[in-house]
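During the reporting period the student researcher (J.K.) took over the structure-prediction task from the postdoctoral fellow and processed the backlog of single-chain submissions. One of the processed entries is reproduced below for the supervisory committee.
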Amino acid sequence: MASLNKVIIIGNVGGEPEMRYTPSGSPVTTFRVATNRAYTTPEGERRQETEWFSVLAWNKLAEQCNQFLNKGRLVYVEGRLRTRTWEGQDGQRHQKVEVVASRVTFLDRQPSSGEKPEEAEPVDVESDDVGF
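J.K. obtained the following structure tokens:
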């Protein structure tokens, strides 16, 4: 039987991306994306909640995300969910759910210094060589 692990998020980058290299030399870039959901309570009160996602991009996609992404950019991220489990120094077991990106689309134009962001054609970056 076939199965599917796919996630799509659209949100704002929450900080500067961080690129590093594995011991074998493969680049990996991590960044966080915030999505917002607005809703009205049964009492009529408007509320907003923010959900944060940790995203990993590998190889060429990692290099492009590191070069072009910065805090506040609006992005479309497509990929798969991965759960990492590890034991901390205190002996406690930890888990983290991450999005391993296979495609990142920059939905806004990157402003030059002092310029306000504007609507622009999306820049689409895709990776066939998704890492671990």
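The committee noted the following: The beta strands are 7-13, 18-21, 27-40, 46-58, 74-87, 93-108, 119-126.
J.K. will present the remaining backlog at the next meeting.
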